[in-house]
Amino acid sequence: MSNQLLTFFMTVILFSVLLGPSFIIFLPTSFAQFHKASTNQSLSNSGSMQPDLQSEPTLVQKTTSVLGSCALAHSSKLHATPQQTEGPYFVDGMPNRSDIRTDSSDGSLQQGITLYLLIDVYGMNNGLCFPVGRAKVDIWHANSLGVYSSVNEMGTTGKNFLRGYQLTDENGTARFTTIYPGWYPGRAIHIHDKVRIFNGSETTLEWTSQLYFNNTMNKQIHEQPPYSSHGPPPTQNEQDFIYAGPSTDSLVRNNSGKDLIMNVTKDGPEYLGTFNIFLNLG
Length: 282
What we know:
- The protein is an alpha+beta fold.
- It folds into two domains: 3-46; 59-280, Protocatechuate 3,4-Dioxygenase, subunit A.
- The protein is built from five helices and nine strands; from the N terminus they run αααβββββββααββ.
- It has helices spanning 3-19, 21-46, 59-62, 215-221, 241-244; strands at 114-125, 128-131, 136-140, 163-167, 173-179, 190-199, 202-212, 263-267, 270-280.
- The strands form two sheets. Strands 1, 2, 5, 8 and 9 form a five-stranded mixed sheet that branches.
- α1 packs antiparallel against α2.
- It is globular and about 50 Å long.
- Mean pLDDT is 81; it is low at 12-57, 60-69 and 73-77.
């Protein structure tokens, strides 16, 4: 035993006599943590232990990850994510579910390219930014042929495909599994989203907007079935009056849709879309 280690244990004995049993109970935990850290470090530095290699996570596994830390650009003039019109097809009271591809009435599955969505909700107040847990996030959008559920004029009354909500977790994250949306006349391809915060049964905040996709990706998707049967999207983002117009909260005077384009990555036949929503809670 080295002189330094002998001195350490003699000091421990001396303090245990002076301070009593509480010191003896407290010491081993902290000492064990220190010892474990030192041992791991020495093994890593010596190269005697191989690193724990893990295979690349699948796209489904990636959807269980948090999008990242909340960071705001100091030079940004945008104090919150802009809002856009709710549109005519919002229906409240949709199911609490992550996978919105099926219809509850008959169990039918909407055909299309799988799209996983990770939406992070952040609050902003007095220059601080923080994740918002227990926020209700509703999304709804058209199917591959541009048809919404629960719309009488579309013949889908009583249906609820491609509709649902999730409550954000402690990291502010809501996760959905859906399909890439289709187009309908006069509009660019988009997903509607609504965030509500409650105090008991009282709604204390409601934020509503729409999310968009890159024009090139929209074109590529609609060259594949079942989208190809509907034809290429005739309206690009910049031609969409809502995308090109002002936000409903006066944050952005024109082209409010530029701040609402999702980050979408492809992994095999599937896609992952991520988006951060910043709410002004001041």
